[in-house]
Design brief:
InterPro entries: Mur_ligase_C_dom_sf. One of its GO terms (molecular function) is acid-amino acid ligase activity. This is UDP-N-acetylmuramyl tripeptide synthase. With 44 residues, this protein is of the alpha+beta class. The protein has one helix and two strands, in the order ββα. The longest helix has 8 residues.
Length: 44
Amino acid sequence: MAADADDIVVLAGKGHEDYQVIGQQRIAYDERALVAQYMGGQCA
């Protein structure tokens, strides 16, 4: 994924949920932490 400094990135996803279900497995997934990691901790 590539976004420039003037781009707006919209996430319409898991939000507050900290897991996702795939088949019958419940897998840890923290969208907020993942975004912070990709943004280098510079979330607006």
